Amino acid sequence: MRIGLFTDTYTPDINGVVTSIVTLKNALEKQGHAVFVVTNQPSIISTTYEDGVLRLPGVELKFLYGYVLSSPLHIQAQAVIEEMELDVIHVHSEFGIGMFARVVARNLHLPLISTYHTTYEDYTHYVNLLGLKSVDQLSRKAVAKMSRMFSKSAQVVIAPSDKTKKMLLGYDIKKEIAVIPTGLDLDRFKVRNEEELKGIREKYNIDPETSLFVYIGRLAKEKSIDVVIEAFAVLLKRDVNAKLMIVGGGPSDSELEIQAHKLGIADKVIFVGPVSSDQVVNYYHVANAFISASLTETQGLTYIEALACGLCVFARPDKPLEGIIEDDITGYLFTSSEEFADKAYQFITADENKKKELHDTALSYAQTYDSKLFADRVLEVYQKGIDVYFGKATVLSVDDRGEEIYLSLETKSGVETMIIDPMIQERREIEVGSVMSRNELNEIEDDQIVYEAYQLALSRIGVRDYTSFEMAEYLREKRDLTQEQIDIIISLLEKRRFIDDERYFRDKIEYHREQMRGNHRIVEDLTKRGFDIDKIQDALEDEDYDDYLARATKRSESFLRTVKDGSTRQREAKLGQHLQRQGFDFNVINDVIRNMEDPYSEGDEYDSLRAVMLKSFERYSKRYDDNETRNRVVKNALSRGYNYDMIAKVMEELKDED
């Protein structure tokens, strides 16, 4: 499939939505799908498109932890998106880019899938600055109405947890809601970089005996980090060697630092600030346990990331965490500061066997969030969305007309006709009553295009051999094919031995050698046919120099037999030029000329000189006096490389004849 992910937040931003999108993109691409990202950037005039990521102009909202808001209308960008030839749009935002995605889906007639990442009703405090109950109720009603409105344009809605699904059902959303927890690239969390971990410990003065608890995420009111700090202050009263590390940035950072100072635990709380996405994993691995008190998560991705690093997780009970954080199995649940302190003390003082048991169980639970399973489930939703949008096609009739099969299809928009090759019909087992999705119809159309191009390739190979590179270039010139389609055709030709680059490579080198050509000529020819220059040179270096010299000598003998006249020097010059044109290098040419036994005798050279001088006399005597004519005849003979003594001898002979 060709998939467009539309989002208001993307790398280099660090948050759960970005993690989810990046994980999905990478997992889909591993399965061979083409994935494009449409997002924004904090610039009101700049639009960029690089490596499949289209970034549109946006305005940074500093009061909302750097959130970038983009316009829902981007006329030029829509033209770029049209060229992506998307099969489905997957939108991860409700505002800005999210609204633009819905416009694009409508204009380009594409199915739209929507993932509801954020429980907006937990963020109403950003507009309810006075904390008024009436404003809060009004805001929550507005969120419900907005959610219903945005879901109308989607074929399927994805919720990352049952908690989110129940919330959406409470908003009276009628669309199908699929619960798909975000997956993780588990390999990313397996690697421990001990050197990086040592650097973090040294930087923040964390000794090996210290039990380190870490929070990773945005520092904002809805994340309840103040609850974490308060609970940690209670733990420290138990006289334990522990520290709390808070990683991330946000609007509440200064308030939280003030809180730590007021509680008298500032020396035990480390505020790291934001870190790059490639460094986040190190802050999990440097810790002994993860802690969060948030009750606003749609899934709790950081909890799962912590489990993937083998950490014991401390959290407050919440619906998204059911089946993930289990008391005394993968971590500990707490509802008060005292309960946290009790369970954290229990963890700190536990023996190594218990800590290893928690570590191993955490890793085991994280396996269920493998990114491949995540991508598979999302692909199922894409297919469902495509089927809902386009409907399915039913085969009404199959008309075999010899070289072509005419299919009559009943589709959502009426009865359509498709013409395919009999081979495609047989391979896909298409018969009356067969039901096919839009994707399958597109695949059949692609099959037909590939089949026709394959037949063209076969007819071309009947004329002469081709390398895979040459055939790809030929198909690219003759047909409007994607690289994937060309690769399929080349693969078929190779499988049936119509194209064999290795055989071609060996045969071509042997052919050039039989034609007595030099290595430069061979390199030039084979690189033009798509072979790597290092591979060519490696193959040529296997030849013994004496054999190479013998080939050049044989070519020289053949050439010199065609040169019937001229001076010895002329013949050597012509031979050198000929060998150079045939691809021999100067060292070989010099060796050939130095050791060459030219059958051309002194008598032959004398006769050639005589003929040259007679012709010169005839030409110059018509324009100059005798003395000037003789001078010009001599100069002409010298310029042709003849020996002066031989010229004088011929001159004397011609004078006697006169």
The chain-level mean pLDDT equals 88
Count of folded domains: 4
CATH class of the largest domain: Alpha Beta
- Main sheet record: 9 strands, mixed
CATH architecture descriptor text of the largest domain: 3-Layer(aba) Sandwich
Give the distance, in angstroms, between the N- and C-terminal Cα atoms: 93 Å
How much β-strand is present in the residues?
5-15%
Question: Structural class given helices, strands, pairing?
Answer: alpha/beta
Under CATH, the topology of the largest domain can be stated as: Rossmann fold
The percentage helix is 40-55%
Characteristic terms for this protein:
658 residues, alpha/beta, Rossmann fold, nine-stranded mixed β-sheet, six-stranded parallel β-sheet, 19 strands
What does this structure look like?
The chain is of the alpha/beta class and 658 residues long. It folds into four domains: 2-179, 3-Layer(aba) Sandwich (Rossmann fold), CATH 3.40.50; 186-368, Glycogen Phosphorylase B (Rossmann fold, 3-Layer(aba) Sandwich), CATH 3.40.50.2000; 502-595, no CATH class; 602-657, Arc Repressor Mutant, subunit A. The chain has 27 helices and 19 strands. The strands form three sheets. Strands 1, 2, 3, 4, 5, 6, 7, 8 and 9 form a nine-stranded mixed beta sheet that branches. β1, α1 and β2 (34-41) form a beta-alpha-beta unit. Residues 62-66 and 120-130 have low confidence and may be disordered. Residues 200-355 form the Glycosyl transferase family domain. Modulates RecA activity. Belongs to the RecX family. It is found in: Cytoplasm.
